[in-house]
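Quick question about two entries, pasted in order.
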Amino acid sequence: MSQRRGGAPKETAVAKEEMMPFSEVLDTPSGGLKMNREEEEIAPLDPVPQKKPSAPTAPLSLDSRYEAEAQTLKLKHWKEGPFAAAMTESTWEEEYTKYRSNPRAACMDMDDAMPCMCCSAFVCGYLGAARVGNMAVLRQSTEWVEEIEEDENGESKTTRFTRPRLDVIVGPYWPMLCCVTYPLILGVSALTLFTAIPGKHPLIILFWTVCTVGLIYALAMTAFRDPGILPRYVKPPAQSDNGGW
């Protein structure tokens, strides 16, 4: 559309760009074009965090080194032991070292779950008894064992090896057996023998004798025999016919 003659030109919404010489246009880095928005500032990269020098570690004392070495030996003995027992000191002599300085205070500080451990440390260490967990081994022997294993091809083969057998063993509460149970049985039996048995019929005396000796023998076979400690296996053994082991 044509404008009226003599009328003022209308202002447009977009401002006109100023005319620049061609030589100045080439000299400008943006080619003479003006940006309608502000240029974004590039934030400098964060510097790489430097590690603070660690404080020098203090050398271990003799007691700390001894405890660390003892713990390592205890763990090794537990892993290489022939029986599946708890991780304890390997011998009763090593257990006795805990009570050597102050036996009374050490026995008073014992855990309530094992109050007779101090007695085992003193007596079993003096007798030279072996140790399996918290049980004292008074006599052991060696036995031959045959086990059936399956190889990689699924074929069964028989392996024959030796392992220790626990012949005479007592539990951790053997002081109660020796100081309470047996004295109670022997005391009552002796009292009966000297007060009630004299003058009775021989058959009654024989019956009482058999029952008393049988009671003492049955208690001994229960208290001094292997309660069923399982041998340690590196890998699960082959299942038996009943599916258990």
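Here is the second entry:
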Amino acid sequence: MCIRDRYKKLCGILQEIKAELVVLMNTEKSLRKGSDAIIVEMKRIELETGAVGFYKLEENREEISNQHAVINRDKGISLAKLTEDSAKLKHLIESRRTQLDPLLKPLTALKDQCKTLEAKYNDAKQQYDSRMFKIENEKAGLQSDVDKLGSEYLKHESKYHTLGINTQITEAFQTRAANEVTYRTMADKRLSTQYKSYSEQLKARTAELEKTLKEAKTQQRAVRETADQNSKQIIGFANMKKLLEIKLRSLNGTDGAHERGVEEPNRLVLCLIC
């Protein structure tokens, strides 16, 4: 039986159950309508006999019994359904396993092949890591040697350039010394139109510097000798400026006195320190 037929069959059963439920509900309503008179009569009988609440106890007992029956019925249905569902699942699993077995056999072979390849890969990776470790160590050693050689090269290069400069300086001194000998021994050879040789040029420059130094010392001495007099003149001019400012303020402050006819003497006192 396919799933669609089973679904249709279950739908039909569900419709029948719904119809029965409607009938039962209608029957319950009709029974409840008729039970009101019975309950009134039972209450009267209980009052007469002194057994109040007996009908409720009986009703609760019947209700509990009905619920117990419903539970037992549902339990049986559930167990049967579970048994049926488990059987179906077991059958489905067996059928799927049967279908998957032919597909799993190649996968088993591939799994074994994968394990072999993984072992080879791990061995190759271990060898690769070992070689790379050795290469890195050798690289570090070579880099240290290269750095050391580079440092030595820079030192030697610096020494080479220093030696070259010193050689040029020495050659220049030698050339100048040879020229000096030539200028001093040969009458037709001169350093320039003004000087015969380097020594004569040096003496002339030295004399000029000595002359300049003497003039500077003379000027320094003159400045020192006139410093006191100059400072006194500066102080005298400053005092004169202050006196002129005071005179100006006094003239500006006596305008009212002129208006009143009072004459102020026009006096200016200068104190010059010479």
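Reply: Confidence is low (pLDDT under 50) at residues 255-274. The chain has four helices and no strands. Hope that helps.
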